[in-house]
Amino acid sequence: VQLQESGPGLVKPSQTLSLTCTVSGASIGTKPYYWSWIRQPPGKGLEWIGTIAYSGAPYYNQALKSRTSVSRDNAKNTMYLQMNSLKPEDTAVYYCYKYPNTWGQGTQVTVSS
User: Fold this and answer.
1) Do the beta carbons of residue 99 and residue 33 sit within 8 Å?
2) Of 107, 111, 62, 66, residue with least CA distance to 87
3) Cα–Cα distance between 17 and 45 in angstroms, integer?
4) HEC string for the chain
5) CA-CA distance, 85 to 72, in Å (whole number)?
6) For residue 79, which of 96, 101, 61 has the smallest C-alpha distance?
7) pLDDT digits (tens, 9 = 90+) for 11-47
């Protein structure tokens, strides 16, 4: 299984971030897979953002839930992350992840004017 993140490297504060995770080697809608977004700010640990299950049910980090959406397109075998009202502290490397041990290479997102 391979995961590939893509999206803008630089976003202005208050704007919306949209990231794409393209999946190969597994079907995103197949039981029992769970697909997640995780980020790592500079100098800090990993932070779980949200997960979408094979069923399509989403789960979110409560601290980010109000401005985050995780979705998928089964036909494109792709997962998406949308995060609104970005702040400089949202600057991080963003990863897509398939439980239990498959990671994308990560994509750097910098929030700056």
Assistant:
1) yes
2) 111
3) 21
4) CEEEEECCCEECCCCCEEEEEEEECCCCCCCCCEEEEEEECCCCCCEEEEEEECCCCEEECCCCHHHEEEEEECCCCEEEEEECCCCHHHCEEEEEEECCCEECCCEEEEECC
5) 21
6) 96
7) 999 999 999 999 999 999 888 899 999 999 999 999 9
